[in-house]
Design goal:
The structure is a homodimer of 389-residue chains.
Chain A (H helix, E strand, L loop, with lengths): L3 E3 L4 E4 L7 H6 L4 E6 L3 H4 L2 H11 L3 E5 L8 H14 L3 E6 L1 H13 L7 H4 L11 E5 L11 E6 L4 E6 L7 E4 L9 H19 L7 H23 L4 H13 L14 H13 L3 H16 L4 H12 L8 H18 L16 H8 L15 H10 L2
Parallel strand pairs in A: 2-9, 3-4, 3-5, 5-6, 6-9
Antiparallel strand pairs in A: 7-8
Chain lengths: 389, 389
C-alpha cells in the first residue's frame, strides 16, 4: 500500500425530497448565485421549480445559465465565467449530471482568475482558488458530485481535457434517487458503464498489498452488476436507484483509491473518441475497456483472475488461469450487451478510420505515455483501438 | 434505504513515517496544546520523541497529560479540562489508541463549558462547541480516530457512557501502521474483535434495501478475517497492519452506516461488563456477540444466512437455512478462539454472578430497551448474559 492522505469534504444529502434543502445549503455560502443546468429536462420534470422555490425561500437570488451539453463545452464555460464576474456571484449551484457539474467546476475556477481557464486544462499552471459550488445530481454516472475532477471539451480542435483539484470538491451534493426515474435507458446504461470504469481504473494497479480496497472495489462492482439491470427493467425502482446512485458517488470520491495508483489509460483513450465523435462517455468506455483488458491481460494475470472469480463469479481453474481471466472479460462484455451497450467502435456508429489520429492525440504525437498499470505509447494505443474495431 | 446526510471531515494521513507531520498539522490550529497519552509505551518506543520533535519544529508549545487507562476515566478527563482552562490551550493532540482519543474528546468538550462534562454523558444537554483535536493512532481498534464518539467511565458507580457529536471528529488523524508493531498480542486480538463488532452492529439492521452497504460491510469483515491472523503471526508485517488499520477506521467512520440503522445492543451490554470488571472492551464484545446472535437469530434468519454465506463462506443449504446461520456464528466463535479470545464470561475471569445487576444497569432498571435490530428489555439482556455464561 502507498502512503496517502484522504479527506473528502463534500456533504452528501441523500434521499427522497432532499432537493428541497438546496436553498438552505446554498444560503450558508452566498445570497447571489449562478444556477447552472443542461437542457429542458429539469424544467419538464418540475425539478427546476422545486429548486428555485427552495432558493427563494432561503432568500437566495440567482442568475441562470442553462444549455450544458454532454461533453461540456468550453464556450459555455466562458459564458458562465463572464456572468459570475459581471454579477459578482458567490456560488454556483449545478443541477444535472456530470456534464453540468464539470462545467460548474470550470466556471468556479475561471471566475476568480484574470487569465484563460483553458490553460489549467492544458496543464499550464494550477488553480489556487475557486468559487464554492454545490450540486443537485440527476444522473448517477460521472461521480463528479463528490470528486476533484472536471473534464471539458474545447471545440477548437475538439480537445477533451481534465483538471483535478481539491478546490473543486462540491461543498454539498444532493442525491435524490427519484430524480433519475425519468432518464432514457441508454443514458442509464452509459452511467452504469461509467461507474464500472471508475472502479476498474482503480482496481487494475501495480501497487501490491491493497487487499482491503480490492474488496471494497469488488463490492461496489457487484452492486452495479446487481442493481443496474433492476433500474433498467423498472425505472421507478427507488431502492435499486438508491443503491446505484450511492455506489456511483463512492466509486469516484477517492476513498477507493486510497493507497493505490489507478490506471486511467482507458479514460484517456475514450476522451479521444468522444472528443472527435461526441459519443456518450460511458458508451465509449464500454468499447475501450474490453480492448484495453485484452491488450494488458498478461501484465498481471493474477489480478485479472481475482477480478473474474470475485466480481464475475467465474469458477477458479488453477490449471488454466488465463481462461479464467478471459472468461471474466467475456462476462463483462455480456453485461454491457445486456444493458444495451456495444463493445466495438462500430457500435458507436463510427465507420471512418481515424485510429491513427486518436492514437496521436492521446499520446501527444508519441511524446508521452498514458496509463499506469501498463504505460502505453502511441503504438499501444493504436493496437488497443484496433482491438476495439 | 433511509435518507441520510454524510460528511466525515477528518483528514487521514496514512503510512510510514507520517507521525513526523503532526507538528505542521497542529500548527494550523494552535501554538499551545495539550499533549495527551497513556502509559509509558510511547516513550519506550520513541514515538513520544518523534512527535515532540515535530511539535518543536513547528513552533508548537505543549502541556502534557499522560496516564490514560483502558476504559478511560472521568477523573483524568477533569484534570485535562483543568489544564486546558488554566493554560488556555487551543488544541488537543491525542497520541495513543481509542482510550486516549476518547479521553481527549471528552476534554475537548469540557474545556469550553462551565458545567460538568459528565452531564453530556448522562444525556443532560448536548455540546455546542469543542476544542479541535488531532490524533496519532497507535492501536487499530476503536475507530475513534475518525468517529463522532467518545466513551468514558465514571469511577463513581463504574458507569460507562457515550457521547456522539459531529463537533469531536478529529481534524486530522495520523495512521502509521508501524506504530502497531509492538502491541501485545492480546491487545491486537481485542482490536480485531472491536472492529468486527463495529461492522456487525451496523450489519444487523431492520432497514431493507441496503445491498451496497451490506457488501461494503462484508468486504471489511472479510479483510479483518484475512489480515487479523497475519499480524498476530508476524507483528512486523507492515502490509497486513496497513490493511487492518485502514479497515478499522472505515469500520467506524459512519460511511458504512449510511442509509442504515445500526443495532448497538451488544456494545451497551458490553459496557456494563467492562464497567464493572474493567475487562478489555474487545474481549467483552467477543463474549457478548455470539450470545446476542443466538438470542436474536430468528428475528431475521435471512440476514444471518447472507452473513454466514458471504462473510464466513458457509455453503448455502436452502433446505436448512437455520443450520447455515448457526454455522456462521460457530465460525465467528472459532475465529475469536483462533486469535486468542474467549467467548464466555468465564473466559474474562468473571466468576461471581452479577448478571442481574448488569441487566438492571443496562436497561436503567427496565425503564428503557437497548438495541434496534431487536429491542431488548431487562429480561432479554439477562437471557443474553446467561447464554454467555
Amino acid at each position: 500500500m502507498e502512503n496517502f492522505e484522504f479527506c473528502n469534504p463534500t456533504k452528501i444529502i441523500f434521499g427522497r425530497g432532499t432537493e428541497e434543502k438546496a436553498g438552505a445549503e446554498v444560503a450558508a455560502y452566498s445570497q447571489k448565485i449562478l444556477l447552472h443546468f443542461g437542457g429542458g429536462s429539469i424544467k419538464a420534470s418540475g425539478l427546476y421549480d422545486r429548486v428555485t422555490a427552495s432558493l427563494k425561500k432561503a432568500g437566495v437570488d440567482w442568475v441562470e445559465l442553462g444549455g450544458v451539453q454532454p461533453n461540456p463545452r468550453l464556450s459555455l464555460v466562458y459564458e458562465g465565467i463572464k456572468l459570475c464576474k459581471e454579477h459578482q456571484l458567490g456560488f454556483i449551484l449545478a443541477v444535472g449530471g456530470g456534464s453540468v457539474i464539470d462545467s460548474a467546476k470550470a466556471i468556479a475556477m475561471g471566475a476568480v482568475i484574470d487569465g484563460d481557464i483553458w490553460d489549467f486544462y492544458l496543464g499550464k499552471g494550477v488553480p489556487t482558488e475557486a468559487l464554492p459550488i454545490g450540486t443537485v445530481l440527476t444522473i448517477p454516472a460521472a461521480g463528479s458530485e463528490a470528486s476533484t475532477g472536471t473534464v471539458i471539451t474545447n471545440e477548437a480542435g475538439w480537445l477533451k481535457r481534465a483538471v483535478n483539484s481539491d478546490l473543486i470538491y462540491p461543498r454539498f451534493s444532493i442525491l435524490n434517487p427519484e430524480l433519475a426515474f425519468s432518464l432514457p435507458k441508454f443514458q442509464v446504461a452509459c452511467g452504469v458503464a461509467d461507474i464500472m470504469a471508475h472502479l476498474m481504473e482503480r482496481y487494475f494497479t501495480n501497487v501490491s498489498h491493497v487487499a482491503f480496497t480490492d474488496r471494497l472495489l469488488e463490492a461496489t462492482m457487484k452492486t452495479l452488476i446487481d442493481q443496474g439491470p433492476l433500474v433498467l427493467s423498472n425505472p421507478q425502482d427507488y431502492d435499486a436507484w438508491a443503491e446505484l446512485m450511492w455506489a456511483g458517488t463512492i466509486a469516484h470520491n477517492n476513498l477507493l483509491n486510497t493507497g493505490r495508483i489507478g490506471d486511467w489509460a482507458s479514460h484517456d483513450i475514450e476522451h479521444e473518441i468522444s472528443g472527435i465523435y461526441d459519443v456518450a462517455h460511458g458508451a465509449g468506455l464500454a468499447v475501450v475497456f474490453p480492448a484495453w483488458m485484452k491488450y494488458v491481460l498478461k501484465h498481471d494475470l493474477n489480478r485479472f483472475v481475482q477480478w473474474s472469480v470475485r466480481v464475475w463469479n467465474v469458477e477458479m481453474d488453477v490449471f488454466n488461469p488465463e481462461a479464467v481471466a478471459r472468461s471474466g472479460i467475456q462476462k463483462m462484455e455480456s453485461f454491457f450487451h445486456s444493458i444495451g451497450l456495444g463493445t466495438k467502435l462500430a457500435d458507436l456508429g463510427i465507420k471512418d478510420n481515424r485510429i491513427d489520429e486518436m492514437a496521436d492525440k492521446c499520446t501527444g504525437g508519441d511524446t508521452r505515455t498514458v496509463g499506469n498499470f501498463v504505460k502505453l505509447d502511441r503504438e499501444a494505443v493504436r493496437e488497443i483501438l484496433l482491438l476495439a474495431e
